[in-house]
Amino acid sequence: xEPPRPSASFVVVGGGIAGVTCAEQLAITxxxxxxxxxxxxxxxxxxxxxxxxxxVLEEFDVEEQPSSMLENRLPNIRVIESGVxxxxxxxxxxxxxxxxxxxxxxxxxxxxxxxxxxxxGNPYVLGIRDTDSAQEFQKRLTKAKRIMIIxxxxxxxxxxxxxxxxxxxxxxxxxxxxxxxxxAGAAEFLTSKLISKxxxxxxxxxxxxxxxxxSKKEARTKAESESVGSAxxxxxxxxxxxKGAEEFSHSIHIETACEVKxxxxxxxxxxxxxxxxxxxxxxxxxxxxTDEETxxxxxxxxxxxxxxxxxxxxxxxxxxxxxxxxxxxNFDLGEDGGLRVDDQMRTSLPDVYAAGDICTxxxxxxxxxxxxxxxxxxxxMGWYAxxxxxxxxxxxxxxxxxxxxxxxHVTKFFNYKVVLLGKYNxxxxxxxxxxxxxxxxxxxxxxxxxxxxxMMGAVLIGETDLEETFxxxxxxxxxxxxxxxDLLDPNIDIEDYFD
Length: 499
Ligand SMILES: Cc1cc2nc3c(=O)[nH]c(=O)nc-3n(C[C@H](O)[C@H](O)[C@H](O)COP(=O)(O)OP(=O)(O)OC[C@H]3O[C@@H](n4cnc5c(N)ncnc54)[C@H](O)[C@@H]3O)c2cc1C
Prior knowledge:
Blueprint: E1 10-13, H1 17-29, E2 35-39, E3 43-52, E4 58-66, H2 67-73, E5 77-81, E6 84-88, E7 93-96, E8 101-103, E9 106-109, E10 113-115, E11 125-126, H3 131-142, E12 146-150, H4 154-162, E13 167-171, H5 184-195, E14 208-209, H6 217-226, E15 252-255, E16 260-265, H7 266-272, E17 297-301, E18 306-309, E19 311-314, E20 318-320, H8 323-326, E21 339-341, E22 352-354, E23 359-361, H9 375-394, E24 408-413, E25 416-422, E26 434-440, E27 444-451, E28 454-461, H10 467-476, H11 494-498
Parallel strand pairs: 1-2, 1-9, 2-5, 4-14, 9-22, 11-19, 12-13, 12-19, 13-15, 21-23
Antiparallel strand pairs: 3-4, 6-7, 7-8, 10-20, 16-17, 17-18, 24-25, 25-28, 26-27, 27-28
Helix pairs in contact: 1-9
The chain binds flavin-adenine dinucleotide (FAD).
């Protein structure tokens, strides 16, 4: 049969931050070309209010928009709301659920990642990925007296802090909380905040707006059934009242160094004649639940303890969403299951690029950069992938973008501003490094990771105002040994040193 006529030179798959940024950049670079954006979700994610805070630190809002807004903004972008079910890379053609096929000259895959669930198909195990799953979670929470959160990454951290009026058992496999982001010292700094009472006047820092109401009804239902919405981003819990059934603030019990061994439904559990343990008495004294309570689901931990709860939240990381693209294509995959991409964001297959959560960065990275599946990197990769696709089309060469020189992430945990720079957890530095620390309880936590007198990374919690200086010190790899402890002395304005 005759090959399909190219419907667009450039096709981008995925309406998350990576895909939308890539399509926008291509549309701007090639104003007379049609850019096709194919996405399974009825809304797209747009970056708004982008602000370059310093050389590499950036801040922006993320807005869910109907795809028509993107098409209106950039008339040479055409959005197709349909999931990709197959890629025939040799024929340069992709097939969508709606029965259509689309040929491409260059393709960028930005289909994101899916939450890893500790148990598939169990109605009492929830994963949170998109607006729909977050709302489902909120609905279930209003009736819940006790839930269990599994996982120790950013999502778990935020949930634990935001949930009120419900007992929370937080099971983590590490010794300290938040090990994806922190060392034990920072964890301890934050834990004290978790246990102290939340202040009434919570600082509402709004960076994300979700305008779900504006989306098309039929499309929504479809996306729900396929469960392939885009991932939520910063402040995803903003606007969702995460309140359980009871009237109190925090009631958290942390179970460290354990994993889930087995789940039992109520009936199943009764038959085992095993005993569940009561919720350890909360700091505010009153216990909401009793030992006699029966629960819909029981969780046996590897520590041997069994807790009953209304449901579990599985927040144990994500798996790149590569599945729809694999059949018949010989992609090189990274250890984490993502599509391997080189320093030009190319996968192992000709004319197929990838960006965002779906890919695994396999270039030789800068000594102070690492991939993390985050909002900012999705944007940077989407932007850079478009640049690379354009350069390849025009026969030009392109250097790695500056944003990959230094890992930089700014976020909020437990209402503290948190800035992570470079090898903030001494990742891959071996034993040959030292830490410099400054901590004021309840106020700030500053840690610098030093190697051979050079700063390799930093964790800044609170309003430290050090991010720009530290960013420069990590980037320029200046020998800081002459400054010794002055570097973190709060009475010395180190900015003056280096200006
Ligand atoms: C609950 C939660 C909280 C988070 N909090 C933060 C945070 O505070 N800060 C931060 O930096 N990061 C956070 N992240 C991570 C961040 O959301 C992701 O790194 C980022 O959204 C990845 O963007 P992406 O464009 O690669 O993928 P996604 O945003 O997941 O977008 C993927 C797109 O592909 C589409 N798609 C999927 N399959 C198909 C298919 N077969 N065919 C067509 N289209 C398809 C989807 O519909 C979607 O539009 C959080 C993630 C979650 C789940």
